Amino acid sequence: MRGKHIIIKILIAGAAILAVMGLQGGGVKTKPISLTAQQTVVAQQSQKSVPLFQQMAVFPDGCQRPLAGGIFAFYRFDIKGRKQYRMKNGDWQLVGNPLTANGVYLAQADQLGVVGITRKLNDGRFYVERLKLPERYAVRLPSPVKVSVKQGALTVNGQPVRGRDSLPRIYALRVPVTRQ
């Protein structure tokens, strides 16, 4: 009896993978995200940007490609356990919705999926959260991405950041979005 349950689970998983692979738009083409004036995104091409990680899409067939787009915000917790978001001036503040609040530092993954942050980073720990999806597919990322800075050394989810050519990778499983 147990063998039948395992076979059924395997068949269901296989059918789900085939269904996802057969969907149109399963490629890696990204569409630009339209934002309001309040939702400005910091350009990643800035020479002062410190790259943190590379966002990679993992497709149902196991293929991996850089995932461009998406809007990211940076936060830390204050003494009372409340989220303080990084502002464009480098300060940390309590805000309601980071997508609509004025002055919140927002970043977008570049064409290579690289997410970075500008200005000097002080010692401590902060987190990166994705606020907006890069395209019509949901992307499951490790949540949150943990960044630690200690005496100038940078780690992302425990992996050292050693420059743009050897960034830690954050893997995202692409799954179709169902709209009701």
TrEMBL record:
It comes from Lacticaseibacillus zeae subsp. silagei. This is Prealbumin-like fold domain-containing protein.
